[in-house]
Design brief:
723 residues, alpha+beta, Glutaredoxin, Glycosyltransferase, 4 domains, 5-stranded mixed beta sheet, 27 helices
Length: 723
């Protein structure tokens, strides 16, 4: 293990016994392993060359900073000197942060699922010296247990297998390589059948199929573990709006079923806001629930989850007017701006599940801990409201994950106190618990800034600023957009993926370009500063140049000049966050609507059409892309308003547009005579006020309506009833 000790110890703590090459990394996850006795390399040419020079197989370990089981395996195995000795003797060891390198993660996760029929993190992959995978797994305990072979056992077996069965190793690696080559050829040849008529029936079929997976007892989809499935719920909101706007349509989705789209959304949102997946004290959502009832979460908090869920609750509020959804949206955004923002405006990636070496310790409570903070009557109210008991509900620890266990009105009746007074006491007590909890040892924050995830957060704040008429949220959006455009570019003006400690690195991926473009377009609609629109269009044009398939019918996840890997990743599924492909389609359709450039729409069509059969068969994996299919099939509303932003009449017209959830509308605004805005945004061209009044122009389905100056007339043109 001499290689580990040859590196300088750059840590402030000189008591570390070991320091490896990860000490030079920007990633907090890699830095967590910089003092392992393992002779780790980052993914780089030096490591790959070393494997071939020494004729050693590669051990690739992939994880991320907020991953609980990644920490467990690190403590059990990577900090174990005996296991490290086996690794260093027999392998070239490479550690990858999946959040920095989604390309590597996607490829080797597919390999892991191909070999084991399951996936997750930590991910462990064994490669030939040439970088071809031949075996893979996820978490391994240090020694044989749980019916799982121990990591030491696996290491010794793989080392021996490579030494004594080299021909079989390369045969397995070659079969995996052939799998990817065959799959890639099929993807390139996947050309849509233009003779097929595509209509709303595809959306109806997808909705019906999706609702078959809905858990009508507990909300959400399928059984435990329960993930938010934000994009699937967004799609159901799209379908609710579609059905509401077309009540006469006789579609499969409009027929009576066990649950309607809006009922499925409301039941899911209600279950999550009551459950332990939501941080009842500090706001924001944990990663997922380990049980079907949404009670006990995996406690890591991810930026992308919170950005997506904030928008979902915002849209549900716009549709239903339910103030609970407004509150959850605000609390989630306020959590992000309080705990997850860099001083210069970028949002951090995640917060760990663990603190003081224990998962969830920061978040759980005992009755005694509550009683130490609150007056007796308030402690009793809180214990009843949040379900804090002596036995607890978390892993036999006699601690409680807070949930909305009892109705506020029922508590008020039990103690003969007016409900509003109970509500006020709960609010005060919640603040006191937050202050007390803040004195605990906090979970670590992964403070790298990921472009694509920031794009999601940017969009959430921008949209919320419109709906809530919040200057604070608008300022956060503008500051974030400014930070990203100023800091996430290379010296050659290429967009970069990850930033930390004043330095950005790694060429951006498709998801980074598309997500940031969407965030900038939302920022334009929140501020009507054409700079943001121009920046978004520039990104999309650059995205087309860098990521287009050879036939121009889609996009790869990596740019044309990316390092050569086992395959060129091309993710079509939406996972925990929207795929780069589905966000690219949305950005193309948005620009097509506002600019009138049919090339954007044509590119979106070439992606959507061949995937429609798969989307309708497996809608659970295409939530965001199904939303884009709805956009493509729906007559979009392009709305231009000419008027000064500080004019009350202009504000009234804008408020009319923003008064409800309009997923397929696009909004532009400029002052009269603003030729620069009209130059950048074609939707504003040749628009003039009527009799000097703020004026709205609505186009729908390639047809423009007469300009109007009144709120009532505008709402009527937009199809709103009851005006």
């Amino acid at each position: 293990m001499s290689d580990v000790n040859q590196l300088p110890n750059n840590s402030d703590d000189e008591n570390y016994r070991y320091t490896n090459r990860l000490i030079y990394s920007a990633s907090p996850y890699l830095l967590q392993h910089a003092h392992n006795p393992v002779d780790w390399y980052p993914w780089e040419e030096e490591a790959l060359a070393e494997a071939q020079t020494k004729d050693k197989p590669i051990l690739l370990s992939v994880g991320y900073a907020a991953c609980h089981w990644c920490h467990v395996m690190a403590h059990e195995s990577f900090e174990n000197e005996q296991i490290a000795a086996i690794m260093n003797t027999n392998f070239v060891n490479i550690k990858v942060d999946r959040e920095e390198r989604p390309d590597l993660d996607a490829i080797f996760m597919e390999v892991t699922q191909l070999i084991t029929h399951r996936g997750g993190w930590p991910m462990t992959v064994f490669l030939t010296p040439e970088g071809l995978p031949f075996y893979a797994g996820t978490y391994f305990p240090p020694q044989d247990r749980y019916g799982i072979p121990g990591f030491a056992t696996i290491l010794n077996k793989m080392a021996e297998f490579f030494k004594t069965n080299r021909e079989e190793v390369y045969a397995q690696a070659e079969s995996i390589k052939q799998y990817f080559e065959t799959r890639d050829r099929e993807l390139l040849q996947h050309i849509p059948d233009t003779s097929i008529v595509i209509d709303a029936e595809a959306l109806d079929t997808a909705t019906k199929t999706l609702l078959q997976d809905f858990d009508s007892q507990r909300g959400g989809f399928r059984a435990a573990p329960k993930f938010p499935h934000t994009m699937n719920l967004e799609f159901l909101l799209h379908m609710y709006v579609r059905q509401s706007d077309q009540p006469e349509a006789e579609s499969a989705a409009a027929q009576p079923t066990e649950v309607s789209p809006i009922e499925a959304v409301r039941q899911s949102l209600d279950a999550m806001l009551r459950g332990g997946i939501y941080d009842q004290i500090g706001g924001g959502f944990h990663r997922y629930s380990t049980d079907a009832e949404w009670v006990v979460p995996h406690f890591e908090k991810m930026l992308y989850d919170n950005a997506l869920l904030a928008r979902l609750y915002l849209h549900a509020y716009q549709i239903t007017g339910d103030e609970r959804y407004s509150r959850i949206c605000r609390e989630t955004l306020d959590y992000l701006r309080r705990d997850m923002i860099h001083p210069d405006g970028g949002f951090y990636a995640s917060q760990d599940a663990d603190s003081e070496g224990e998962e969830g310790k920061f978040y759980v409570w005992t009755p005694k801990q509550v009683e130490e903070v609150l007056e007796p009557i308030d402690a009793e109210i809180i214990k009843s409201y949040y379900g804090v008991t002596a036995t607890g509900n978390f892993e036999n620890s006699k601690t409680t994950v807070l949930t909305r266990a009892k109705n506020l009105e029922a508590i008020a009746a039990d103690i003969a106190m007016p409900a509003e007074k109970v509500r006020a006491r709960i609010a005060e007590a919640k603040l006191a618990l937050f202050v007390a909890r803040s004195k605990r040892v906090w979970p670590n924050t992964d403070d790298k800034i990921i472009t694509s995830w920031n794009g999601l957060a940017l969009r959430a704040f921008a949209e919320a600023s419109e709906v809530f008429e919040s200057e604070t949220y608008a300022e956060i959006a503008v500051t974030n957009a400014t930070f990203l455009l100023e800091n996430m570019r290379s010296s050659k003006n290429r967009l970069l993926r990850s930033y930390r400690n004043g330095k950005a690195h790694i060429h951006a991926f498709l998801e980074d370009y598309a997500s940031l473009a969407l965030g900038l377009l939302a920022t334009y609609e929140a501020t009507f500063d054409p700079h943001w629109f121009s920046a978004a269009q520039e990104l999309v044009n650059e995205m087309i140049t860098l990521f287009s398939n050879e036939d121009g019918a889609g996009f790869y996840d990596t740019p044309r000049d990316h390092e050569k890997l086992l395959t060129k990743p091309k993710e079509i599924f939406d996972n925990a966050a929207p795929s780069g492909l589905s966000m690219a389609v949305e950005a193309l359709l948005w620009l097509a609507a506002v600019t009138g450039n049919t090339e954007y729409r044509s590119r979106a069509e070439k992606i959507l059409l061949p995937l429609i059969p798969e989307m309708t068969r497996n809608p659970l994996f295409f939530g965001h892309l199904l939303c884009q299919l709805d956009r493509w099939l729906s007559p979009s509303q392009e709305i231009a308003i000419i008027g000064h932003l500080d004019d009350n009449d202009t504000r009234d017209l804008l408020a009319s547009v923003r008064s409800r959830y309009r997923p397929n509308s696009y909004l532009a605004c400029a002052g009269p005579g603003d030729t620069e805005a009209a130059r950048i945004i074609p939707l504003l061209q040749n628009r003039q006020q009527i009799q000097g009044k703020s004026t709205a122009f609505v186009c729908m389905g390639f047809v423009c309506k007469m300009p109007v100056t009144g709120k009532k007339e505008l709402l009527a043109q937009l199809g709103d009833t009851g005006v």
